Amino acid sequence: MKPIATTCSVFTKFWNLPIPELAATLNRIGVDGAELPVRDGYPVNLENVVRTLPEAAKIFADHGQRIISVAPPIGPIPPELVEACAWAGVTYIRVMVRVGEAGYLAAEDTACRHFESLISLLEHYGVTIGVQNHCDAFVASAAGLRRIVERFDPKHVAAVYDVGHCGLDGEIPPLAVDLLLSHLLAVNLKNMIRVKKRHDDGDFARWERPVVAGRQGFTPWPDVASALRARGWSGIINLCAE
After folding, report:
1. What is the pLDDT of residues 136-166, one digit of tens each?
2. Mean pLDDT of the chain
3. CA angle, 237 as apex, 233 and 239 as ends, to 5°?
4. Which of 97, 109, 230, 239 is deepest in the core (most CB within 10 A)?
């Protein structure tokens, strides 16, 4: 079979290392670059991003690596993050849409209005917002993602298909890829299951959702690869921190 043309990154959330050590580690692994958390407690965060993200990108380049994407905290994307991504050569900003007390449709509308407010900046700097699905109180499925991203040019707002979270929602890879293909920028590879918590007899069951090894979760990764290959997709494969 023809291989999928991809760029491979690693989300470094659980590797809170100094930037030179992080870049050297990824170079040893043999991937193309990182998805870098831009959050409190990390070397690059929203308070210092204008200065530190371009500096980090230079260090990565010295190690033969790239910062392919960044993952800020949940919430509005500050304009200075878009600018810093452009200066650092970062392809996309990965975000998720949280559903709050106002409900699902309100969250969807708020997110789309926010993305619309950034279009001129995204166009000017050549940066993309990548919207990822996430289970529980977020836009959780490929179907939900499509309702958002289909309103936009994919060079501005695109989809990040998280196969683990789609698996928890029961969405099989061929359907998820069909839904997102026109806007599919990146695929997050991880796998998850649901495990029943212990509970007293008579109570409703409660479930945990641990991340597991790729072979053990609800979404067969070979099915993901087959669905992508059959549709001629190429893009970014992001190996999640878990």
Report:
1. 999 999 999 999 999 999 999 999 999 999 9
2. 95
3. 155
4. 97
Structural domain spans, the chain: 6-239
227 class by beta-carbon count within 10 Å (0-12 exposed, 13-18 middle, 19+ buried):
buried
Enter the CATH code of domain 6-239.
Answer: 3.20.20.150
Q: Residue 4's pLDDT band (boundaries 50, 70, 90)? A: low
Q: Is 89 strand, coil or helix?
A: coil
Q: Distance (Å, rounded) from C-alpha 68 to C-alpha 156?
A: 16
pLDDT, greater one: 208 or 45: 45
Please answer whether residues 74 and 96 qualify as being in contact, where contact means their C-beta atoms are separated by less than 8 angstroms.
Answer: yes
Going by pLDDT thresholds of 50, 70 and 90, the confidence category of residue 241 is confident
CA pair distance 215, 237, nearest whole angstrom: 17
Ramachandran angles phi, psi of 157, nearest 5°: -135, 120
With 70 as the cut, is the pLDDT of residue 169 above it? yes
Which residues contact residue 188 at a Cβ distance below 8 angstroms, ignoring those fewer than 6 apart? Answer: 11, 132, 160, 161, 162, 163, 164, 238, 240
C-alpha separations of 127 from 23, 29, 87, 169 in Å: 22, 27, 10, 30
Write the CB contacts of 230 (distance below 8 Å, at least 6 apart in sequence).
174
Q: For residues 182 and 29, give the distance between their C-alpha atoms in angstroms, rounded to a whole number.
A: 31
**The pLDDT value given to residue 214:** 87
